[in-house]
């Protein structure tokens, strides 16, 4: 049965790489630059409200006060509306870790949920989840897109692990989640493999402020006896690293990473926040650290979207620093063999996102690359 589930998951991942049929509702849309304009406008709108702070006042005035978005984790005892409400997170880039967890919490509550995240609601905090819930009725609710992205990478990751295990059942597969934010994959996956947990170690890496908050919340939860067992790997290892400025080669080796074992690397929603030098260094180091057969799963945005974001009123979009219109060439030149570059749409998972048809085309890309 579990083998069958694994096969179905793999099939779903394969299906996910197929384009939508021409008559699919998700295709009925504007085309070319009109799509890009539309997409960009929408991203600006959603990002202006990334902290849910256009109620009761617009995001811009919120920021003008020098406040940061509130990360409302009452477990930590911070008061709403206070600077401490930042919980130590340094800026809106780090805050995306929290708002994306809220999207997963909201997705988990749907009757047709694409996944069940056991920790998302806790890691996001009640008030952030409530605020973002208020957006769900909006047909342009951004979380719908990110739930699909998460599902896509869930399937791609399990498929990659299964392939590694099929090639060598003794392989001590490693998973590395960089830019993991408040992602709880380590407790959420797998749903398909016979070997549970299927990986030997999962390494989670993000900025020090984000990992600090995450570990603090997790330890509170653990002390209260509410932390579920790890499901993705036997052991979870944390790296507090800024990929723009810190070297992490020694650190990851000290923490038990083995260059000789195959690795699935997942960078979900990370690379657009890195500088060009940070991206090159990360991609090359990851190639250097990857045994043959290792897989890199990554999403990114186009260079043109990054250029246009420079004049955006949104602090999130202005913080984008890297994009590529030709990721395949870039990654192939830095030690990888790109196997797929996809558009990912709601229609792949039975979700129609009516106002976004075609929006990802030429704007966001989802890539799988292998190390040979
Ligand atoms: C949009 S969130 C995605 C988080 C997570 N992957 C998810 O899907 O929920 C972007 C993440 O990238 C992290 N990030 C951005 N710049 C970074 C850097 N220079 N070094 C390490 N992490 C970074 C942020 O802290 C944040 O957690």
From TrEMBL:
InterPro entries: Ppm1/Ppm2/Tcmp, SAM-dependent_MTases_sf, SAM_mthyl_Trfase_ML2640-like. Gene3D superfamilies: Vaccinia Virus protein VP39. NCBIfam families: mthyl_TIGR00027. Belongs to the UPF0677 family. One of its GO terms (molecular function) is methyltransferase activity. This is S-adenosyl-L-methionine-dependent methyltransferase. The keyword Transferase applies. GO terms for biological process: methylation. Keywords: Methyltransferase, Transferase. It holds the Pfam family LCM. The keyword Acyltransferase does not apply. Residues 1-36 are annotated as: Disordered.
């Amino acid at each position: 049965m579990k083998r069958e589930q694994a096969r179905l998951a793999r099939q779903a991942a394969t299906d996910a790489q197929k384009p939508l049929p021409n008559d699919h509702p998700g295709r009925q849309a504007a085309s070319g630059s009109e799509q890009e304009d539309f997409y960009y406008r929408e991203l600006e709108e959603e990002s202006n409200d990334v902290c849910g702070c256009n109620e009761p006042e617009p995001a811009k005035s919120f920021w003008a006060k020098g406040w940061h978005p509130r990360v409302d984790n009452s477990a930590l005892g911070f008061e709403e509306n206070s600077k401490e409400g930042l919980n130590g997170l340094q800026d809106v880039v780090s805050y995306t870790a929290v708002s994306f967890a809220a999207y997963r919490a909201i997705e988990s509550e749907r009757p047709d949920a694409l996944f069940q995240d056991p920790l998302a609601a806790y890691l996001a905090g009640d008030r952030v989840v409530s605020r973002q819930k208020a957006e769900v009725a909006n047909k342009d609710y951004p979380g719908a897109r990110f739930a699909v992205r998460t599902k896509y990478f869930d399937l791609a990751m399990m498929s990659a692990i299964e392939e590694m295990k099929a090639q060598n059942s003794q392989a001590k597969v490693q998973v590395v989640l960089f830019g993991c934010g408040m992602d709880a994959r380590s407790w959420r996956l797998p749903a398909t493999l016979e070997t549970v947990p299927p990986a030997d170690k999962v390494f989670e890496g993000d900025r020090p402020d984000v990992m600090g908050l995450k570990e603090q919340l997790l330890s509170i939860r653990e002390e209260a006896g509410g932390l579920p067992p790890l499901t993705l790997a036997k052991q979870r290892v944390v790296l507090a690293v800024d990929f723009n400025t810190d070297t992490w080669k020694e650190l990851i080796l000290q923490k038990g990473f083995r260059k000789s074992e195959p690795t699935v690397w997942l960078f979900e929603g990370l690379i657009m926040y890195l500088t060009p030098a940070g991206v090159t260094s990360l991609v090359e180091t990851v190639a250097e650290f990857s045994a043959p057969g290792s897989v890199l799963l990554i999403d990114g945005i186009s260079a043109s979207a990054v250029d246009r974001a420079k004049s955006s009123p949104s602090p999130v979009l202005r913080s984008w620093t890297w994009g590529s219109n030709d990721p395949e060439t870039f990654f192939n030149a830095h030690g990888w063999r790109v196997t797929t570059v996809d558009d990912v749409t709601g229609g792949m998972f039975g979700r129609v996102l009516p106002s976004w048809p075609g929006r990802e085309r030429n704007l966001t890309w989802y890539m799988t690359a292998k190390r040979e």
